[in-house]
Amino acid sequence: MNIAAPNIENTGPFTRACGWHKLLPNKIVEMAKKIKKLGQDDPRRIIHSLKVGLALTLVSLFYYIQPLYDRIGENSIWVVITVILVFEFSVGATLGKGLNRMLATLSAGALGVGVHHLATLSGEKGEPIVLEFFVAMIAATVTFVRFLPTMKVRYDYGLLIFILTFSLVSVSGYREDKVLYMAHQRVTTIIMGSIIAIVTCICICHVWIGEELQDLIANNIEKLGNFLQGFGSEFFKISEDRQPLSDIAFIQGYKSLLTLKKNEETTVTNLARWEMWDYRFGLFHPWKQYVKIGTLTWQCAHKIEALNNYLNSEIRALNEFGRKIQKPSTKICSESGKALRELASAVKKMYQRTSVNAHIEKSKTAIENLKFMLDTYHFEDANLQEIIPSAEVALTLIDVVPCIVKIADAVQELASLAHFKTPATRVSP
Amino acid sequence: MNIAAPNIENTGPFTRACGWHKLLPNKIVEMAKKIKKLGQDDPRRIIHSLKVGLALTLVSLFYYIQPLYDRIGENSIWVVITVILVFEFSVGATLGKGLNRMLATLSAGALGVGVHHLATLSGEKGEPIVLEFFVAMIAATVTFVRFLPTMKVRYDYGLLIFILTFSLVSVSGYREDKVLYMAHQRVTTIIMGSIIAIVTCICICHVWIGEELQDLIANNIEKLGNFLQGFGSEFFKISEDRQPLSDIAFIQGYKSLLTLKKNEETTVTNLARWEMWDYRFGLFHPWKQYVKIGTLTWQCAHKIEALNNYLNSEIRALNEFGRKIQKPSTKICSESGKALRELASAVKKMYQRTSVNAHIEKSKTAIENLKFMLDTYHFEDANLQEIIPSAEVALTLIDVVPCIVKIADAVQELASLAHFKTPATRVSP
Q1: Residues of A in contact with B147 (CB under 8 A)
Q2: Is the pLDDT of residue B16 over 70?
Q3: Closest alpha carbon within chain B to A74
Q4: With an 8 Å Cβ cutoff, are B377 and A384 in contact?
Q5: Which of A225, A256, A313, B220 is the most exposed place for a label (fewest CB within 10 A)?
Q6: H-type helices in B236-286, by residue range?
């Protein structure tokens, strides 16, 4: 784009206007390309947009069809508003918002009617004062509760809607005689809107965020495994056999792990917990365990950053010391890589994997060999700067295996909590 | 809490109910403690809650005072709703939401009136069809645009409100004769509500998120500097002089750096960009530069994780090799620590700091000395596992200085972009 853009700095206003005139089509083309890529990267985004359009079309029928309009009247607009505000990309997010909105409206509506009743008891002059007092007090209290981390994570939207509905019912109740009718209307329309949004979201090409989370966690473990396996075979290669580093897929995969946001799993997990009806996971799926596994994977990825750095550096393990430690190091890499890939497949397919322990045992044996070599190796006249890279690779590998054991334990815990199928049932087909 | 809780597992339903009965006061006390701590940690949260209550009280006067109610009528409720939805903790967030809401309502209102006019041209039967088509199409398009990362970051709320207002005006316009009046009412009430929220937020104990961001960035750089300075004096100490590690403040500070969310600065920066009226920063403050400095600090913190690990391990630099590299290593630590602390104070006070370069030059010289030692050190009969910790500390320190140079360059760029005061002007008082 930079090549196509004419230089519009340091020129007169007229020339500059011409410059913008020429730039504009470029900008539009660029924007169109971005939008196209967005759709290609994840076509479900297009489907989601169409679903929102469809839900709105459905819901605006309340306005166009006379019998429906007669029943709800102009409050139909709250059905439309609710659908727009509640409809989200994933089922979990939609359910979370919908349930929050319904519960908050219900409870705040009831409280609003109660406060309105209390206020009418205090006479015509006292009424606005009592109302003002309650609105200010409840709004301030609920706003403060929104700061509580446990509340913020799951009920922030609900608390906001609580303030909104309460103010709406109690304040506008001052001018309205039929407060109970108004509150009832609001609750009904919001429940209708939420249900329409949730049903549309689930019934048409649903996106279960729980499955996304499972894939995310499994893919990350797999990338780690691929990197370790790839590293073992690449680092100790002689120069001529090496591929250009930019071509190697396992390094790209590993790098994508490092750029992961540390709290991404937490956000996704909080949405997944709303998906109570996903047939694969059931009502009491241990979602928190995914956060634990995700954090351990992230820590492990950062621990082996040193390995990646040495892969990029010119000095590799070509010296005598490097050749000495090659065999146990490669063994550790391949065995722990296999263990990680088994773990990834266990998470993805919800099967128990018994072979993981065997791989871990083998890498532990390799570690003992490596430690013995490091202890007994004596070097004369060696250059420290040459030895350090290989030695650090060795020490990092010794450090990595306990990390992998932790991941394996966490996956094992998940497997028992979520009742993963045992290999015995897998033989049948 | 665990100690106080009676064991309520494996007991009959009656005993369990008694157990819960005993537990409940504990739960309430615990919750109360949490809420108290929340207020003590940041008293501005209490002030914010009271501000929301006050703004709502102000805005509900539209209902209670007859002359005001006569002007706006029952649409006053949109003023109340807008205040609740727009009012946020920081000025930046409130401005962002308020401007988004106002612009979106204005443009969507205009578009809605236009589409309604178009629909009425197509006859009584054609009208709902034309309306349905436009609502579905525009909702789907705007929903898709919300996926664009550049849009999502700053205009997500505005786009949502755009869909909302457009549907509201065009759909409910089908049953309303005075569409133009309705759209006008909606735009006016929302602008009023937004302005009330923004003014209350700015005028009473405002929280400028730009200043928070500046402090966040400066404190992180300072923590890094404290850690390096502290590390230099602690790592090469002999055993008897050492404090227990848990007591050392600089380690705690450093650890808090590691748990920082990588994208925290980006989120905060996007809010800070809305604060166009903060007198300290002005309209064109280079906020993006803070993200750059924050990322560099984060990378640097992760690079020196190895130093922290060795500080915790039993093996420290007590051997001959460790004593040999002590002098240049300590020099690097203290000089680069000083440089970082100067940089932190430059960011915080918006002054240029010329002494930074001197400190960096000194640490560069120390690096040359250290490198020379590593190159010339020859060791016979040394145990590799004993030497590695000190050697890795040395190599990490050699790696850290270029990182600090990058931070210094980024701060220098910020200083010139944001016109930081030069030291010359600082002499005057």
Answers
A1: 38, 45
A2: no
A3: B172
A4: yes
A5: A313
A6: 249-258, 264-272
d(CA B222, CA B249): 13
- 3-class DSSP state of A351: strand
Q: Which of A46, A56, A136 sits opposite B139 (nearest CB)?
A: A56
CA B189 to chain centre: 31
| Residue B264 structure tokens | 């925290």
Q: Please tell me which of the candidates A57, A147, A261 has its beta carbon nearest to residue B263.
A: A261
Give per-residue pLDDT as tens, B389-419: 777 788 888 888 999 999 999 999 998 888 8
Distance from CA of B338 to the nearest CA of A (A): 27
A290: nearest Cα among A208, A221, A360, A202: A221
| In contact, B276 and B283? CB cutoff 8 Å | yes
Tell me if A136 and B302 make a contact (CB, 8 A cut-off). no
Q: What is the pLDDT of residues B318-337, one digit of tens each?
A: 667 777 888 888 899 999 99
Look at B60 and A374 and tell me if their CB atoms are within 8 Å: no
Q: How far is B382 from chain A (nearest CA, A)?
A: 7
Of A409, A354, A345, the C-alpha closest to A214 is A345
Residues 6+ apart with CB under 8 A from B370: B325, B328, B329, B332, B394, B397, B398
The phi, psi pair for B280, rounded to 5°, reads: -75, -30
What span, in angstroms and rounded, lies between the C-alpha atoms of B7 and B16? Answer: 9
Inter-CA distances, B376 with A201, B232, B327, Å: 69, 23, 16
DSSP string, B353-412: -SHHHHHHHHHHHHHHHHHHHHHH---SS--HHHHHHHHHHHHHHHHHHHHHHHHHHHHH
Who's near A64: CB < 8 A, 6+ residues apart? Answer: B128, B131, B132, B174
Backbone angle region of B208, left / alpha / beta, with phi > 0 → left and psi within -120 to 50 → alpha: beta
pLDDT level of residue A411 (50, 70, 90 thresholds): very high
Q: In angstroms, what separates the C-alpha of A93 from chain B's closest C-alpha?
A: 15
Predicted confidence at residue A428, as pLDDT, reads 43
For residue B177, give the DSSP letter. S
Radius of gyration of chain A (CA): 30
Chain A: residue whose CA lies nearest to B376: A383
pLDDT tens per residue across span A173-204: 777 778 888 888 889 999 999 999 999 999 99
Taking every pair of Cα atoms in chain A, the longest distance, rounded to a whole number of angstroms, is: 99
Q: Please tell me the predicted confidence (pLDDT) of residue B315.
A: 52
CB-based contact A52 B143, cutoff 8 Å: yes
Q: Which of A56, A85, A383 sits opposite B135 (nearest CB)?
A: A56
A60 — pLDDT class (breaks 50, 70, 90): confident
Interface test with A, best of B46, B75, B147, B381 (most A CBs within 10 A): B147
Does the model's ipTM exceed the 0.90 cut? Answer: no
pLDDT at B11: 47
Distance CA A271, CA A418 (A): 18
Q: What is the DSSP letter of B331?
A: H
As a whole number of angstroms, the distance between CA A167 and CA A410 comes to: 47
SS3 B168: helix
Mean pLDDT across chain B = 83
Facing residue for B167 by CB, picked from A38, A69, A84: A84
Query: Are B397 and B333 a contacting pair, CB within 8 Å?
Result: yes
Q: Name the residue in chain A with its Cα closest to that of B175.
A: A63
Q: What is the mean pLDDT of residues A210-233?
A: 89
Residue with tokens 């009280």: B57
Highest mean pLDDT among A279-288, B257-266, B373-382: A279-288
Nearest to A388 among B81, B381, B391 (CB): B391
Cα–Cα distance, A249 to A256 (Å, whole number): 11
Interface test with A, best of B384, B387, B392, B398 (most A CBs within 10 A): B384
Residues A418 and B372: their CA atoms lie apart, in Å, by 58
Task: Look at residue A239 and tell me whether its pLDDT is greater than 90.
Answer: no
